[in-house]
Specification:
It is a single chain. The chain has one domain (16-234, 243-260). It is 33% helix and 11% strand. The chain is built from 9 helices and 7 strands. It has helices at residues 32-39, 49-64, 78-87, 101-112, 126-131, 143-152, 182-186, 204-213, 243-258; strands spanning 16-20, 44-47, 72-73, 117-122, 139-142, 198-202, 221-225. Strand 4, helix 5 and strand 5 form a beta-alpha-beta unit. Helix 2 crosses helix 4. The longest helix is centred in the first third of the chain and has 16 residues, at 49-64. The model has no long low-confidence stretch (mean pLDDT 92).
């Protein structure tokens, strides 16, 4: 069984790298959240967007080779993977066997920061289940738990000289990954799939209804999310604002990040992931 948040004491002592899901902007202010995480004792703070970029590259390669009559289903959402494994076993063979951005980013972190423990902060409880099968991830904290930790003010460091920027792996365009269809929109699929060959569906009821029909026609790629709206609709999102406002927050974060002057060393360059396999 994976270690849980209960065994991770605060303030954090030792070397830890914390990975932040880009949906964080729905519940937390940027860049203040980075400062708070550093004050808790986290040595490194990175975003998941570089992992998403790496996953997209693998999806692009596979879908480019996808022949007529071949259906591939995204597996980045562990809730959907669980649904298919439990209720639609005949479609298990159609799941794309590539790591999720969380797992991909954890592998990158272990390569870059080999002496650090890896912590993932998530809007989704399914990610804790997924992390149980990932040796590179040591802890998973959901947004509710993080909010409670912040409220207790278990800070270790003063604000002075603490950076409010991510340590590495900026990737602007994949910041919309937590929105439904974010994978399809950022994996550069327009030139390899037609509109009839790709579809995005969000919300467990809609996904189940579609899978039960079993009429996939010319469909080659099914991009699916368990939660309505994508990860911004996750069960551990604290904000009660309408879904449309949550989406606007993510897009606003994307626009803001594009205006930042990011040093080359902090950008998500593919060469930094050399030698890492993302195959499940």
């Amino acid at each position: 069984m994976k270690k849980s948040v209960k065994t991770l004491s605060f303030p954090v002592r030792g070397k830890y790298v914390v990975m932040l899901a880009p949906s964080f902007v729905v519940d937390f202010s940027y860049p203040e959240i980075i400062l708070k995480l550093r004050r808790l004792g986290f040595d490194k703070v990175v975003e998941l967007t570089f992992g998403a970029k790496l996953v997209n590259r693998e999806y692009h390669k596979l879908l480019k080779k996808c022949p007529s009559g071949c259906l591939m289903i995204s597996s980045v959402c562990p809730g959907v993977v669980s649904l298919i494994n439990n209720k639609f076993s005949k479609l298990k063979k159609n799941l794309i066997l590539i790591d999720s951005p969380m797992v991909a980013m954890a592998k990158v972190c272990k390569k870059i920061y080999p002496k650090h423990n890896v912590v993932f902060i998530s809007p989704c409880e399914f990610k804790k289940q997924e992390a149980e099968g990932c040796k590179e991830i040591d802890f998973v904290i959901n947004f509710n738990e993080l909010k409670e930790i912040f409220a207790k003010k278990l800070f270790k460091r003063e604000d002075k000289n603490l950076s409010t920027s991510f340590d590495r792996f900026y990737n602007d365009y994949t910041k919309i990954y937590p929105l439904a269809g974010g994978l399809s929109k950022t994996a550069h699929l327009k030139n390899i799939l037609t509109n009839k060959e790709s579809i995005s569906i969000d919300g467990i009821k809609r996904v189940e209804t579609f899978l039960k029909k079993g009429n996939f026609g010319k469909l080659k790629f099914l991009d699916v999310n368990f939660c309505v709206g994508g990860c911004v609709g996750g069960p551990y999102i604290n904000s009660s604002v309408p879904l449309v406002v949550k989406k606007l927050k993510v897009r606003g974060y994307l626009r803001k990040s594009k205006q930042e002057d990011i040093p080359e060393i902090k950008k998500g360059l593919v060469k930094k992931a050399k030698g890492i396999s993302l195959k499940k």
